């Protein structure tokens, strides 16, 4: 158990819909990262928040948005869903903001299926 | 666009064999990490290498960061069935906060 929690574990929805994925970081961690993992693209960095502020951005679509709240939990909003958005979405957290220099702890993921 | 090319994609070996996984890029990274992921779970960090030429050992696993900080390798000695899993390398570009670029992964299967 990494200490990072993600809900829901599974999500099935239809094209055009909007969903919200939730992440609670490990106690004491200020950074939250979101990743998308699919068979064809592998693990892709989407976005990072550090203490409520956006810190780094990856290949995140405009239809996707995220935020980190004062209690440090984070939400990833996916809208106008397409079949290709079906993937595993991981949240990770770390103490500071430099993922490559410190340990990043991954949650168990949310498996999204868009039908 | 910075890319990390990982090879091989799939590796199936017998218990006791040695293997090496490679991670290559044309870009320089400030650090490189190796993760292992099991089905249904998130990746777990194995090691971080920061200095060019650095070698780190973790029991039967040896990690090396290239001198130019563009490539890395993971060598497993005397593989065991418990080593089975997806191995991912991830590079941190300089001055890009917490961004990590992941390789496509190597799916390792070690048969008893």
Describe this structure in words.
- The complex is a heterodimer of chains A (115) and B (112).
- Chain A is an all-beta fold.
- Helices cover 0% and strands 52% of the residues of chain A.
- Chain A has strands at 5-7, 10-13, 19-24, 31-38, 42-50, 53-57, 64-68, 74-78, 87-94, 105-106, 110-114.
- Chain A is globular and about 35 Å long.
- The model of chain A has no long low-confidence stretch (mean pLDDT 94).
- In chain B, 0% of the residues lie in helices and 52% in strands.
- Chain B has no helices and eleven strands.
- In chain B, strands 2, 4, 5, 9, 10 and 11 form a six-stranded mixed sheet that branches. A five-stranded antiparallel sheet of chain B has the order 1-3-8-7-6, with no helix packed on it.
- In chain B, β6 and β7 (61-65) form a beta hairpin.
- Chain B is globular, with a radius of gyration of 13 Å.
- Chain A binds chain B through residues 2, 4, 31, 33, 42-45, 48, 50, 55-58, 90, 92, 94, 97-109, and chain B through 29-33, 40-45, 48, 50, 88, 90-92, 96-105.
Task: Compile the SSE list and pairings.
The complex is a heterodimer of chains A (115) and B (112).
Chain A: E1 5-7, E2 10-13, E3 19-24, E4 31-38, E5 42-50, E6 53-57, E7 64-68, E8 74-78, E9 87-94, E10 105-106, E11 110-114
Parallel strand pairs in A: 2-11
Antiparallel strand pairs in A: 1-3, 3-8, 4-5, 4-9, 5-6, 7-8, 9-10, 9-11
Chain B: E1 5-7, E2 10-14, E3 19-24, E4 31-37, E5 44-49, E6 55-58, E7 61-65, E8 71-76, E9 85-92, E10 101-102, E11 106-111
Parallel strand pairs in B: 2-11
Antiparallel strand pairs in B: 1-3, 3-8, 4-5, 4-9, 6-7, 7-8, 9-10, 9-11
N-to-C series of helices and strands of chain A: EEEEEEEEEEE
Judged by helices, strands and strand pairing, the structural class of chain A is mainly beta
Fraction of residues of chain B in helices?
under 10%
Radius of gyration of chain A: 13 Å
Largest sheet of chain A: 7 strands, mixed
**Order of SSEs of chain B, N→C?**
EEEEEEEEEEE
Would you identify the regions of chain B where 5 or more consecutive residues have pLDDT less than 50? Answer: none
Please tally the β strands of chain B and state the result. 11
State Rg of chain B: 13 Å
Count of separate DSSP helical elements of chain A: 0
Separate helix tally of chain B? 0
> What proportion strand of chain B?
over 45%
Whole-number average pLDDT of chain B? 94
